[in-house]
Specification:
heterodimer; A: 306 residues; ABC transporter involved in vitamin B12 uptake, BtuC; 70% helix; B: alpha/beta; Rossmann fold; 6-stranded parallel sheet; 11 helices; 14 strands
């Protein structure tokens, strides 16, 4: 055993990278759930974003465009969910699960010709002076744009939900859609936009895996990250800052696990793999005593006539 | 295309499918653990399948199912293949061992071939390649190339095949570089690019400047390329697309001759249960081009080692070799027997850490 082999700065830096896909998908799902919609299709939207982004990057040669297309791909798929649940009034849980299965199949169909290709690398954002600071530089200032974008997005979502009129309306729709409707807000329209935002974020998260973290395309490559993102929202008890914290925690577990192995500490991998879910269950138990709770209209179907 | 036309085509195709059985074509099935596009292990098995088709043309029909999990699902896939009239089924991963035996019991007239396992039956053969011979050459090159004296090794599952590879690489790396150390990470997957990439990154962060992998995707090479100044090897396939980057050589599995021979045996009715374990000499294990990043003298030594392994004048496990706990395993000049190698479950002396149970 040689723990000194683990460089804490590098560990923290790779933790930030490992957390980014679930952070993006998680913050998107948080907005969806705060609007009162439960979309279990995160995994499907992520993998669709992963292949859309990958295809666009290969075709255009620009990772930035790739991320744009990934967001559009994820949002497009989420529209299907919006159509089913908001207009056809289908069950949200079933529709979400269907969306995941559909996304997995669709992505492997789209990706047939893209196996084994190498995308152009996403440029690292080297901030001249800051990235040279010994430890802090490595941890904080030596990443690609998307890592910072993810954190900025958390700040933006938090500020919007807490301080803006838009955030207030979104929360009202999520807490009591009948009241919001009575006040004249377009419940369905607001929810559709929230769902699309969630889809776009999940798509970005997926593309981060296929373009930066691996980077290549293989079927089923998100490997359950979407489910972790869902657990993350519950873990965070629907608060943006806790999503950030949880993403670091959940993302960090895998990196830490590999680091410990390489340093010679034998830890049964199974325990660490299930730990995000166990933590989520624990949080749910603790939360039942806490005043923070799920949005009141979460998962309920809204129709103006009822 | 009109819908009626589509139906007509489907009907014709259906007719052809039924007549195919009547035609007495030999039907060969392949069960793959990863996607055929993994660029490694499954990719090479699929190349073998295509070689069978090219060799026998109209006389064979091949089918394959990719990304089949190792477990109960594999049994379902094999049963399905056998029910659809397959005469010969190749199951191409270690974890298919028990499912293969179980399904083979139910279909005594179907021949099964299981890769890298050790359980045979009346209608089940096993075949594998002596990858450890290739690992010896990798170890030799890696031991020479490393400057940090730390070599990272991404293992899949702690099974004899993988442990053999680690030992062989380690012995030959130590031979040329007594200070060399192995850092071993178990990924518990044959194929999960994100996890393999993470594992490679962790090893590089902990000082490894040569990465050996026993997982099937090209992700570790991509991670090595991103890190820069790190060397790696193609695994199971040449992975030549990384030649300008980290890849300095590779182990290539060449299954085609074996698949063709076994299909022929089924056609001729001469198929018998066998245990095949071929290495560099028989051509089942190939060594990919050693690039110019390897110094010329090292390259010459590596090629000499390859020649000696091929003609049998040198065995990759030649004593004196002690086990990890210091107890003697092979005496001076003694070589390992196949039985011990097939069930190898210990590290040799000098490797740190325990094999997970």
């Amino acid at each position: 055993m040689d723990l000194s082999a683990i460089n804490p700065a590098l560990l923290l830096a790779s933790l930030l990278v490992a957390a980014t896909p679930i952070l993006l998908a998680g913050i998107g799902e948080l907005v969806v759930e705060r609007a009162g919609v439960l979309n279990l299709g995160v995994e499907g939207m992520m993998i669709t974003g992963a292949i859309c982004g990958f295809m666009a990057t290969i075709l255009t040669g620009s990772p930035a465009l790739g991320f744009v297309f990934a967001a559009m791909g994820g949002a497009a798929l989420s529209l299907l969910f919006a159509l089913l649940t908001q207009y056809a009034l289908a069950n949200q849980v079933a529709s979400g699960l269907a969306l995941t299965l559909f996304g997995l199949g669709l992505s492997s169909l789209l990706g047939q010709d893209y196996v084994g290709l190498k995308p152009p690398s996403t440029p690292q954002l080297d901030i001249p002076l800051l990235s040279d600071i010994p430890v802090l530089g490595t941890v904080l200032f030596n990443h690609d744009m998307v890592v910072y974008f993810g954190i900025a997005l958390v700040v933006a979502v938090w500020a919007t939900l807490k301080y803006s009129r838009l955030g207030l309306i979104l929360r009202a729709v999520g807490e009591n859609h009948d009241a919001a409707h009575a006040l004249g807000y377009k419940v369905v329209r607001i929810r559709v936009f929230a769902i699309m935002f969630g889809g776009a974020c999940a798509g970005l998260g997926g593309a981060y895996i296929s373009l930066v973290r691996v980077p290549q395309w293989t079927e089923g490559m998100t490997a359950g990250a979407g489910w972790i993102a869902l657990a993350l929202v519950v873990f965070a008890s629907w608060k943006p800052w806790r999503v950030l914290l949880g993403a670091w925690l959940f993302g960090g577990i895998n990196v830490l696990q590999l680091n410990l192995q390489a340093a010679g500490v034998a830890i049964p991998v199974e325990y660490l793999t299930m730990s995000p879910y166990i933590i989520t269950i624990l949080v749910l138990v603790i939360m039942s005593a806490d005043k923070s709770r799920a949005p009141a209209s979460l998962g309920r179907i809204f129709h103006a006539s009822s | 295309m009109k819908l009626t036309h589509l139906f007509a085509t489907a009907a014709v195709a259906l007719g052809m499918a039924t007549s195919a059985i009547a035609d007495d074509k030999t039907k060969v099935g392949f069960v793959y653990v990863g996607p055929v596009g993994d660029g490694g292990w499954t990719y090479e098995h699929n190349k073998g399948r295509l070689a069978v088709e090219a060799e026998f043309g109209d006389k064979v029909e091949t089918v394959f199912v990719e990304s089949v999990p190792e477990g109960a699902d594999a049994e379902r896939v094999m049963t399905q293949m056998a029910l659809q009239g397959a005469d010969l089924i190749f199951t191409t991963s270690f974890g298919y061992m028990d499912p293969t035996i179980n399904v083979a019991k139910k279909f005594p007239n179907v021949k099964f071939e299981h890769a890298t396992g050790y359980k045979t039956a009346e209608n089940v053969s096993v075949y594998s390649a002596r990858f450890y011979e290739g690992r010896a050459i990798q170890g030799h090159i890696a031991g020479n190339l490393t400057e940090s004296n730390i070599i990272g090794y991404i293992g899949s599952f702690p099974i004899p095949e993988v442990i053999r590879g680690i030992n062989s690489a380690f012995i030959h790396a130590r031979k040329v570089n007594p200070d060399v150390e192995f850092k071993i990470v178990w990924a518990y997957t044959w194929f999960d690019p994100a996890k393999e990439a993470d594992a490679a990154k962790v090893l590089i962060e902990q000082g490894a400047d040569v990465i050996l992998q026993h997982t099937d995707s090209t992700a570790p090479l991509a991670a090595a390329a991103a890190a820069g100044n790190v060397f790696g090897f193609g695994q199971a396939s040449d992975m030549a697309e990384f030649k300008d980057g980290p890849r300095v050589s590779s182990i290539i599995d060449d299954w085609a001759p074996y698949y063709i021979a076994r299909t022929k045996a089924v056609m001729d009715g001469t198929w018998e249960t066998m245990s095949t374990w071929d290495g560099i000499g028989a051509g089942m294990v190939g060594i990919g081009e050693i690039t110019d990043k390897v110094p010329a003298t090292v390259k010459a030594e590596a090629l000499a080692l390859k020649a000696a392994l091929a003609d049998g004048s040198y065995h990759a496990f030649t004593g004196p070799i002690n086990k990890q706990d210091g107890s003697a395993w092979l005496a001076e000049g003694e070589t390992a027997d196949d039985g011990t190698l097939a069930g190898m479950s210990f590290y040799v002396e000098g490797i740190e850490g325990d094999i997970p149970q």
